[in-house]
Amino acid sequence: MTDLIGTLRQQPWSLWWVQFRRFARIEIRRNLITKRAWWIYFLAFVPAAIIALHLVIDRHQPSSMNEDTNVLAGIVQLYYVRLGIFFGCLGIFSRLIRGEMIERSLHYYLLSPVRREVILLAKFFAGSVSAVTLFGLAMTLGFVLMYIGYGGAGQDYMLHGPGLGQVQAYLLIMVLACLGYGSIFLMLSLMFRNPMPGALLLWGWEAINPVMPSLLQKFSVASYLRHLMPVSVPAEGIFALLTVETEPVAAWVAVVGLLALISVVLVYCCYRMRRLEIRYTTD
Amino acid sequence: MNAAADTIRFENVSKFYGEVLGVNRVSLTLSPGITTLVGPNGSGKTTLMNLMTGLVQPSRGKISVLGLEPSNATEFFCNVGYCAQFDSFPRGLTGFQFVLDSLMLFGMSEMDAQGLAAEALERVQLDAAAAHRNIAGYSKGMRQKIRLAQAVAHHPRVLVLDEPLNGLDPMARAESLALFQELGRQGMHVVISSHILDEVDRVSDRVVLITGGYLIAQGNIHEVRQEVRDKPMQLLIRCDKPDLLASKMFAVNHCVEARLHGDGRGIFLRTGDVDQFYRILNEIAIEGAVKIEAVAPFDDNANAIYQYLIGSDGSTA
User: Where do the domains of chain B lie?
Assistant: First the structure.
């Protein structure tokens, strides 16, 4: 144990930190300021755009505020978590390493005096910052637009009522979703030349997960996030019949469980990164 | 300093890509200076370079560069620069930014990095206006130069160059070769793979011939030529009576071919025994019947050795 601590102390942490920041800065710039990211912006902001249309066209009666709160919960749980963040993160995270292999530029980084783990974690961090910034802004904007039409009542709800707690919970869900899906897509991109089939399988799994036995529900990002929802979205129709009600899980258990899953996936990603070879002709 | 700390070592290294052989059982020790890897396409030159720099990992064997291994990236890549053959770059960067970004990863200040980037661009003769343009608009020669600048910018002790002359015009080639020579003279390891054998031949301290993933010869180019004993050595002798010299040489049985030079003032001779040849030539010179002006080996260059050992013309491979 003393040896391990000694070894850890001898590592060039300050250099790694400088390299990490440098990589992250390059990567964030590349993720956010690129024409190729337009569809991720679209995925993030389309609900806010639709809410804005309603704001312009619809009349907002105070009695419909509860209904809008449920709509917002539905947007977060059914659109953002299952669709927007899922595919947005697929676009961002699967490109971090695999995209550079397709563009044949990854070797420049692997030939730099940077540990591969630092490269991987910096890229993951940059991907997370990009995704969280985009979806966080979009979600907050959607939230504000949803209640702003109610005038003073909406303002009260957002600032002094349950709205503030709800938006915090939604942002936490969004951050965890980005980290959870991001880590898995990063892993898939390190394991397969084409991560898309694996991602679609995961999407299918996440979609049918609510109707799975409660033990299998634990192996899903969305199921952890469902326990963090401040407003529950009731299952209706055929899903109401098929959905297995699971024991409620404490918020901290859901958060810690998801963070543990992310950590395990990232450790495996680091292992794959160390063994990664540059063979562009076969990739 | 022990020997390993100043050499590049391959110890029984093999690399297989699935069932495809990359290189097989390569054992090689390279000391400082310019080493040229010679071989046809697909012979394993790039694989050797990628193994040396950790872009691929050996299936068997061990590689160390100055006693370091690529897994120790921080120290390893402070000492090694690799100008790979891949003609692609991170998107949206100018040439200067590309070199600067690479240098910043060494943990140096932006001011130091800017100084080194400017110096590197000057070394490869890429003008400042071009350096501040987006790489996407560069010609092939400019892209080659910017890759070279990125590889040399941090002053590595080992420089690995995969086809560094590709795409360069004759002037730029000459400048690059002069740069390699200068680096070699400074005691650096410069490992080059090139198809332009005539040009790299002039600057190489040693050659490594490789074909089909197997190392077939290595060493100083003249030594390698001496080892190719089944191919008679060709010499050009400048003299006043080439026909007389030819008849005297054919009197001994190691001369297998003689061809008069076009200007009538020289003769190409092929001999199976160089030592014997020089002894007889000295005797002829002492006799005074033929006035010998100059003697030069004509096929102890990389191109000729390539043809003898590998069987095709290196310049067109």
Answer: 3-219, 229-307
Q: How far apart are CA A76 and CA A85, in angstroms?
A: 10
Q: Which residues of A fall within a CB distance of 8 Å from B92?
A: 30, 34
Interface contact B135, partner A, CB < 8 A: no
The pLDDT of residue B158 is 96
Query: Residue B193: beta bridge partners?
Result: B37, B162
| Domain assignment present for A3 | no
* pLDDT one-digit tens code per residue, A150-188: 888 888 888 888 889 999 999 999 999 999 999 999 999
Q: What is the dihedral of CA A126, A127, A128, A130, to 10 degrees?
A: 80
pLDDT tens profile A81-125? 889 999 999 999 999 999 999 989 999 999 999 999 999 999 999
Is residue A4 a part of any domain in this protein?
A: no
Percent residues over pLDDT 70 in chain A? 90
Residue A280 in any domain: the answer is: no
CATH topology of domain B3-219: Rossmann fold (3.40.50)
For an interface test with B, which of A111, A272, A278 has the most B Cβ atoms less than 10 Å from its Cβ? Answer: A111
Give the ipTM.
0.78
Structural domain containing residue A219: 16-275
The per-type count for chain A, helices as H runs and strands as E runs, is: 14, 0
Q: b or e along A109-118 (b: 16 or more beta carbons within 10 Å of the residue's beta carbon)?
A: bbbbbbbbbb
| CB neighbour class for A14 (10 Å; exposed up to 12, middle 13-18, buried from 19) | exposed
User: What domain count does chain A have?
Assistant: 1
Find the chain A residues whose C-beta atoms sit closer than 8 A to any C-beta of B.
12, 14-15, 18-19, 22-23, 26, 30, 34, 100, 103-105, 107-108, 110-116, 274-275, 277-280, 282
Cα-based angle A19, A24, A29 (whole degrees, multiple of 5): 135
Q: In this model, does residue B254 exceed pLDDT 90?
A: no
A194-198 CB contacts, 8 Å cutoff, 24+ apart:
A195/A90, A195/A94, A195/A98, A196/A90, A196/A94
Topology alike, domains B3-219 and B229-307: no
Where helices occur in A75-213 by DSSP H, the ranges are: 85-102, 106-110, 116-148, 151-159, 163-191, 196-208
pTM over 0.80: yes
Within-domain flag for A9: no
Q: What is the CATH number of domain B229-307?
A: 3.30.70
B307 or A267, higher pLDDT: A267
CA distance B41 to chain A (A): 14
Contact, B225 vs B193, CB < 8 A? Answer: no
